[in-house]
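Query structure, 433 tokens:
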């Protein structure tokens, strides 16, 4: 750290960091790295780093117990209650917000800024899915065991290790188990957390699934839309000539799939679901089409969204213009956005990226950068530093009934996560001497 910066009060630096989220640090990278690397020499941090291996059986047990509590999106309450009591016994001040997010706070030496570490509670499995965990050798098997049993167990382990080591962070840390990450949950839990804490947030670390080989620093933007076309409906023979909602949907759909999309930035669309009609000899009164639009670029998403609206509008107009009998009713249409995940990217020169690199070096890990759709989309889209990482061990078969997890070397992932977390929260010099 250079002399000039050293004379600037920490709070002033924080304020600068906060108002310049896209150029997240004015400190030279080497200085930041030294800061994070120095962490591991702190005796309390060292104790916390060792805690994971010593307590691996306890961590496994948490993961099994939480996985066996069903938690489909929108029905996370029971699992949330179990996480709340576990976070309380890790010494945190815990509350549940009105959406059902569980938030445990560890007060820092200063509460001017916060670091948020999260794991989503929900699974893609509907109520009634058999979620009892069974073992095959070292392997644990159950739907949701890895996504996100591993993340939740990791969240509790981080809180416990910090408590056991009596670490007082410089900035407050919020440990949150959030609702609504999967599917039509549409990141609603994370959206509420960011809304509530946005003004103080320095960084967000999302624990999602297993492994240590990847890190999501780029948010894949997506939009999911549904068009609903309605008309009067009638008899296929006697009302022939009336505008037909399915015809309009086919006309519009055909226009849309001819939309040109770039390979760079990679941009995709999918017509995923069509519904409508009541019988083969009826002119339908309704037709629906759901599409999924994704891109590495938010601009392309917007462009495709406009193309979809234009295409469907033109399809409806074509059908009405071509109706053989214009006296027989008209068509109405509307488009509903049923999901929206904004894009964004963690800057390569950000403090969080530096903390990640130093943590990887320290534990001897190599991780590749990925673009994906996770809870980190929300902070990244707002210019708040965020990453999503696996919480260690190995897993597979996510979102399938054959999902599995192997906890061997889980501690590598947790040591990495702890160093990143404390790299961003920093350890209070005063209380941890
Ligand atoms: Zn997940």
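Result returned for the query:
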């Amino acid at each position: 750290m250079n002399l000039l910066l050293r004379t600037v009060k920490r709070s002033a630096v924080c304020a600068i960091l906060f108002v310049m989220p896209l150029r997240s640090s004015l400190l030279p990278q080497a200085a930041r790295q030294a800061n994070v690397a120095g962490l591991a020499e702190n005796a309390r941090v060292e104790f916390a780093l060792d805690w994971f291996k010593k307590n691996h059986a306890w961590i496994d047990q948490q993961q099994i117990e939480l996985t066996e509590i069903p938690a489909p999106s929108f029905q996370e309450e029971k699992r949330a209650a179990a996480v709340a009591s576990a976070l309380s016994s890790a010494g945190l001040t815990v509350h549940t917000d009105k959406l059902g997010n569980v938030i445990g706070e560890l007060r820092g030496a200063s509460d001017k800024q916060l670091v948020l570490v999260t794991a989503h509670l929900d699974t893609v499995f509907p109520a009634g899915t058999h979620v009892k965990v069974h073992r095959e050798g070292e392997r644990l098997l159950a739907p949701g065991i890895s996504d996100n049993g591993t993340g939740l167990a990791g969240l509790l382990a981080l809180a416990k290790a910090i408590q056991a080591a009596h670490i007082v962070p410089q900035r407050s840390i919020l440990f949150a188990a959030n609702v609504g990450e999967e599917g039509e949950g549409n990141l609603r839990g994370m959206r509420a957390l960011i809304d509530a804490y946005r003004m103080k947030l320095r960084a967000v670390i999302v624990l999602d699934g297993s492994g240590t080989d990847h890190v999501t620093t780029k948010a894949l933007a997506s939009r999911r839309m549904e068009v609903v076309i309605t008309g009067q409906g009638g008899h296929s023979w006697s009302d022939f000539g009336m505008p037909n909602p399915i015809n309009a949907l086919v006309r519009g759909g055909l226009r849309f799939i001819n939309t040109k999309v770039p390979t760079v930035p990679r941009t995709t669309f999918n017509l995923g679901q069509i519904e409508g009609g009541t019988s083969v000899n009826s002119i339908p009164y309704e037709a629906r089409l759901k599409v999924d639009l994704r891109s590495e670029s938010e601009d392309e998403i917007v462009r495709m969204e406009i193309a979809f609206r234009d295409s469907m509008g033109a399809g409806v107009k074509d059908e009405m213009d071509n109706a053989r009998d214009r006296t027989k009713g008209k068509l109405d249409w509307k488009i509903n956005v049923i999901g929206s995940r904004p894009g964004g990217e963690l800057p390569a020169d950000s403090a969080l990226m530096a903390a990640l690199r130093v943590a990887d070096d320290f534990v001897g890990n190599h991780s590749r950068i990925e673009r994906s759709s996770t809870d980190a989309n929300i902070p990244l889209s707002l210019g708040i530093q965020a990453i999503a990482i696996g919480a260690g061990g190995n897993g597979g078969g996510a979102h399938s009934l054959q999902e599995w997890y192997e906890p061997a070397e889980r501690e590598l992932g947790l040591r990495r996560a702890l160093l990143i977390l404390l790299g961003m929260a920093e350890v209070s010099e005063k209380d941890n001497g």
